[in-house]
């Protein structure tokens, strides 16, 4: 049985999400429970729950991007990335799990 989201798609999606303006990182959950699991590999911040895809983000507040715009961009990117997978068409829930001012400390 194949994975609903293949490992290469998950890895690429995670990297693309982290490049969105206003995203500091993907959030793994309090105990690392938010992840897609593969043999000897995990993609933190993405998860399948029932018939939904979850994306957990750490917001970069220094980007000053409206949160609704950020969530919409993450949802659109995820939906587009999953079109050729078994997870195509599943609803995507975006969770703004944490926030940081990553660029202020530079």
UniProtKB/TrEMBL annotation:
Q: What is the lineage of its organism?
A: Bacteria, Bacillati, Actinomycetota, Actinomycetes, Mycobacteriales
- The name of this protein is Asp23/Gls24 family envelope stress response protein
Organism equals Corynebacterium suedekumii
């Amino acid at each position: 049985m194949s994975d609903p989201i293949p490992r290469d798609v998950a890895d690429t999606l995670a990297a693309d999400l982290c490049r969105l303006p206003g995203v500091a990182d993907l959030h793994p959950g309090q105990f690392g429970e938010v992840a897609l699991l593969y043999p000897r590999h995990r993609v933190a911040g993405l998860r399948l729950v029932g018939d939904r895809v979850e994306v957990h983000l750490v917001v970069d507040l220094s980007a000053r991007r409206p949160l609704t715009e950020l969530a919409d961009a993450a949802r659109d990117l995820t939906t587009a990335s999953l079109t050729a997978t078994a997870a195509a068409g599943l609803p995507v829930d975006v969770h703004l799990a944490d926030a940081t001012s990553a660029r202020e400390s530079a």
